[in-house]
Write a structure and sequence with these properties.
The protein is built from 14 helices and 14 strands. With 390 residues, the chain is α/β, with parallel strands linked by helices. About 2% of the residues have low confidence.
């Protein structure tokens, strides 16, 4: 079986390259390499899966949705007896908002948002827009959420009903210790709901949801699962979710109603992104063929190792110190040379078919380079060559 999986993965890589060349030839352009946190480069088979139309009420499509829901729960190492997957149309932020609008009690609901970057702050901002009482506790962008630093807070404030945290804060690349935070939450706030934004890490960074006491986890198919944009998903403690019925402040983002609809007839309440769902089914097969989360993690770690070694040789400095080992995305400080212009740097790399990301931290001038998606060691080396030339 292992040999067959390797052959399947090798076939996927070859088909990706062939499909990329065909698409490039048809459009008269070269497909670019996306060194970003998503959307990402996807495989040829994943793209090819979208080249047909299916009805949203078709038996085959309903079976595909059921497969994806079941497989994502299994991928998280959970039992479908106690956990469920609820797909949500739209980007990852839609799923974030669906959890917050649906699982915070209407009466005396209070969210503790632990933030150390723009994506954690987004959850806090969603709460404010929804009129949900939120206490945001900010930490520096170059540091993890300090577990001991919040111990006193959570032990004193028993009014907190929900705790929200980001696993991989892609503002900087920091990986927060969500399992340690989760154990503290369950120890000090046993009745509180624990919510993890795992947008950029699920599928490549192992996380024991049950040991961490995670009740809800959100991610998107166009990140480490290496599929295309179109929908996101929530992994939920089923018993907890059903206890939230009637709490949602939104019709379309009502997570309980979405779950009940899928359980009733396997269908979305509103038009689903059929082509994106077909692509994810193929992408999940490819993840299995590669060797699962651990194998994908090793590829991404190798990508980061090649990148950081090469960048250091050219004199670039990472934003985070060596105590951080996240491998999803890496932030680099601008060179101090007066001739450096990020806009010019970006344009020249882009003209060579290499797309990087601008920085998002507020206290330093940085740019970011992603290590995920259909990127391999040769791609990282080619990027380093292009950076040296530029």
């Amino acid at each position: 079986r292992t040999t067959m999986n390797r052959l399947f993965f090798a076939r996927s890589v070859c088909l990706f390259r062939n499909t990329s060349r065909q698409l490039s030839s048809a459009s008269g352009s070269t497909e670019k390499k996306l060194f970003t946190p998503g959307p990402l480069n996807t495989s040829g088979p994943a793209k090819h899966a979208m080249l047909r139309d299916v009805g949203s009420r078709d038996v085959e499509f309903i079976e595909t949705v059921a497969f994806i829901r079941r497989r994502l729960v299994e991928l998280a190492g959970l039992s479908t007896e106690f956990f469920t997957c609820v797909p949500v149309q739209g980007s990852g932020t839609y799923a974030l908002e669906s959890v917050l609008t649906s699982t915070v009690p209407r009466q005396k609901g209070r969210v503790l948002a632990l933030t150390n970057g723009a994506y954690g702050e987004r959850s806090a901002n969603i709460c404010r827009v929804l009129g949900i009482d939120v206490k945001e506790v900010k930490f520096p962008e170059d540091q993890r959420i300090d577990v001991e630093g919040i111990r006193d807070l959570v032990s004193r404030d028993q009014s907190i009903t929900n705790v929200a945290i980001v696993h991989c804060e892609t503002t900087s690349g920091v990986m927060n210790l969500v399992e340690e935070v989760g154990r503290l939450v369950k120890e000090q706030l046993p009745n509180a709901t624990y919510f993890v934004d795992s947008m950029s890490s699920f599928g490549a960074v192992p996380l024991d949801m049950e040991a961490a006491g995670v009740d809800y986890l959100v991610s998107s198919c166009n990140k480490c699962l290496e599929s295309v944009p179109g929908f996101s998903y929530v992994l939920a403690n089923t018993k907890k979710l059903l206890g939230c019925k009637g709490w949602s402040r939104s019709l379309s983002l009502d997570l309980v109603a979405q779950y009940e609809g899928l359980e009733k007839n396997g269908q979305f309440r509103f038009t689903p992104p059929t082509h994106s769902i077909l692509a994810l089914k193929e992408a999940l097969h490819e993840l299995d063929a590669e060797g699962g989360i651990e194998a994908r993690a090793k590829r991404y770690q190798k990508n980061r190792e090649i990148l950081c070694t090469g960048m250091a040789e050219m004199g670039f400095t990472e934003f985070l110190d060596k105590s951080h080992e996240g491998y999803i995305i890496t932030s680099f400080r601008y060179p101090s040379h007066p001739n450096f212009s990020f806009n010019e740097f970006y344009k020249r790399l882009n003209s060579r078919g290499m797309v990087i990301y601008p920085g998002k931290v507020t206290k330093a001038n940085c740019f970011r380079i992603g290590n995920i998606g259909q990127l391999f060691d040769v791609d990282m080396r080619n990027l380093l060559v292009a950076i040296r030339e530029v």
